[in-house]
Amino acid sequence: MRQFCTWILLLLTIVNLQALEKLKIIYSWKSLDFVFPSEHARLAAIKSGNFIPGSPLPIDVDVYNGELKSTVFIAIPRFQDGVPLTLGYVTDEVSLDGNTLIAPYPNWSYNDAGNCASIISVYRMQIDECDRLWVLDTGKLKSKQVCPPKLHVFSLRDNKLITLYKFPEHQYKDEDSLFVTVAIDVRDTTNNCKDTFAYIADVTGFALIVYDFRNSRSWRINNNLFYPYPPYGTFNIKGDTFDLMDGILGLALGPIQNGDRILYFHSLASRVESWVPTSVIRNYTLFHENPEAAARSFVPFEHERSSQSVAQAMNHDGVLFYGLLSDLAIGCWNSKHYPQFEGKNNEIIVRNPETLQFPSGLKIITSKKGKQELWVISVSFQKYMSGTLHSNETNFRIQAGFVDELVRGTKCDVSSLEGRFHRQ
């Protein structure tokens, strides 16, 4: 009997290890370091305070699978001093203390915090199916609005700027707004992909901004569901507790069905997921004079998640992936076969108390071979908030795994459920 129990424990350990390895660590850092033009330039940046080692904290990741190579982009907002660049990509170079170096994108001059034509501060970006990188620029240094918030759109085929859009003053509140998340809705890939909309979360202004690329215009939408939920403004993550009353942050687009698609969204200080048809929010006529129009078109799901969540993304099968902060895990929900977002329909596909501390960035990437991949960046943000972030331990990780392996055997395994639901 004792041998049997030992065998069972060994089997469970192997299964758990296999589950942990479904998300593989691609990069990890104790602290971020950068590819400066020279060692002299690096030392000068440190001396001037433009670079404070240990200060930069990454928030988002995205991946471009180009013809010649893949590029991993990283966003590092300037909400504190000492961040020399805010948009970069991971290189093959390594610092003397073992940290993979990050280079500026598209170059150093375009990351100049003193020039409003440059990129000031980026929380998140999005690469679309038309090989464009959409960079959402808050225009803020720490809490000060030094420039208007902007969208910088680059062609990744030649790394040239396609367009730069400044949001009108009436669409943001100087010290109160913070544009942190962008979701790109390409309606038609013909005609240079001009029929594209960007949906933008104003996390502290509690609003959704819609940008119409074809017509170079934007509008602001207000709704009660964009606000934080006071009972969930306290976060408990692996022994650290902090308060943050942030509103709408997580955005995810569903697949196109009957010419329309759903935008799923949630506030950071919340456990509620909500949704709205994009046909509603793309209606400029409806909102440009009344930001509070169509209030009942925004619908919350009745049931809540087990904890607060930051980033989320939905794949082309309609499976929503999201981080669970207190659970130190990644969860999923299969909207195709289980329309109600609720506990019995949600699954935890990976749980790791070390590597999944505050997953702040999450993307679904299609590989060159056509396989869907889940990419996650986790940043130990709770340690930053509690003042316990130390550069002698691993703080930031980029992980990735194949979606089909992550969901296998769960309710989010769409391919295995197709036959069963068809028979029913």
UniProtKB/TrEMBL annotation:
Location in the cell reads: Secreted
The family database entries (Gene3D superfamilies) matched by this protein are listed as:
TolB, C-terminal domain
- Please verify whether the record's keywords include Plastid: no
Q: Name one GO cellular component term.
A: extracellular region
Q: Name one Pfam family in it.
A: MRJP
What InterPro entries does the database record attribute to this sequence? 6-blade_b-propeller_TolB-like, MRJP/yellow-related
Q: What are the protein's UniProt keywords?
A: Glycoprotein, Secreted, Signal
- Which positions make up the signal peptide? 1-19
Query: What does the similarity note say?
Result: Belongs to the major royal jelly protein family.
Q: What protein name is recorded for this chain? A: Protein yellow
Q: What organism does the UniProt record list as the source?
A: Bombus terrestris (Buff-tailed bumblebee)
Instruction: Print the organism lineage.
Output: Eukaryota, Metazoa, Ecdysozoa, Arthropoda, Hexapoda
Identify the coding gene. LOC100651683
